[in-house]
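Data deposition worksheet. Section B asks for the primary sequence of the deposited chain exactly as it was used as input, without tags or linkers unless they were present during the calculation. Section C holds the resulting structure in token form. Section D is free text for depositor observations; keep each observation to a single sentence. Incomplete worksheets are returned to the depositor.
Section A, Depositor: J.P.
Section B:
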Amino acid sequence: MPGALDGIKILEFTQIIAGPFGGMLLADMGADVIKVEPLEGEPWRLALQFIPGESKTFMSLNRGKRSLPLDLTRPEASDIIRKMILDIDVVVINARPDVPAKLGIDYESLSAINPKIIYCDNTAFGRQGPDANRPGYDLIVQAMSGLMASEGKIKDGYPQQITSTAIADYATGIAIAWGVCAALFVRERTGKGQKVDTTLLGSALGVQTGGFMEIESFDGELRRDVLQTLAALREAGVPYEQVDEQYRNTLFEWRRGSIYYRTYQAKDGVLAVACLSDRLRKRVADILEIDDPRFKPGFDPFDQETIAAGEILAKKAEVLFTERTVKEWLSAFEKVGVPAGPVRYVQELLDDEQVVANDLVVDLEHSKAGPVRMVGPMISMSETPLKAQSASPALGEHTDEILGAMGIDAETIQKLKDDGVTR
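Section C:
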């Protein structure tokens, strides 16, 4: 059974994470994604190569695509793009803001050739405003969006990046696929193409819904006080770590001492417990046999005595958790419906029974690297199933196939290669 985007043709001018990830999600839905790369390959191919032209990072972000290397500064390459665009449904690009127009692959140029195209343009900060023309990667956006500071990791006096995943990049990849699918749906109803703008900044703010919000009657005055304090501390040259401590003491004091939404060291490992209702919290308190004032009348989470009591309870809970194994705790929590789970490393999950049972692992064959196991499609659909179509392409693996389908004969293709237009 074909995927939801079967028959949709996508031309992808992307590098690194956000754009490639978005294109891969669309390929999983059955779209034919042609990845246009520099002649040497996109930078992620060349980072930590384990064989020439291939890295695990590149392979993890580009499955299901076909590779077409082009030197976009050459007129012959521009001719190829202009011819291709007549048969293309979607363009995805994540270049510096000034690059597309210089190469003739901006929305205005391509939509003039094919008014029905969906053009998804991803930038770091958006096309408007004082930062519009600034380049930016996930690290920069983590810093500028509040993500890094909110994480609260400080080492040697400096805030540390979120290293487990490039959160702004990957969230943007999902936004790219989401935006493209919505635009394709609109085109089905109206016949009109359009431009879709995604940004790393927008994605980074979008995943901070609670933090990036102000209720005037609740926290408007507090926020203004915090901003004034931050400005004064920075002007005085106070070190970051002290600034951060004051910030957290002002805004997050009531969160200290929570025992119901955190990780614990058990006798033989670490587990996480997550309770977001008093009903679930009471069950944990009963299992631990602790007396928590939150279950008594008149409980005030902002009260200083309550906060102090919570810190004492947290220390007591930490000791109690070391008395049983992870398996014993999970069994106890499962019996009463409390969400809990072991802390594991991602490498442990390739053979995990739950992961495998839900088709979240796929086995593919790479033309150069051989057998590859990787995460499968993120969602499933009953009538238009998703599928990892193929492993990531080797550089130029599909040049002859793509150009040949455009009616370019083998001799001309070879000349384009010899002249350094493609490879």
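Section D:
Residues 216-250 form one domain.
Residues 167-190 form the longest helix (24 residues).
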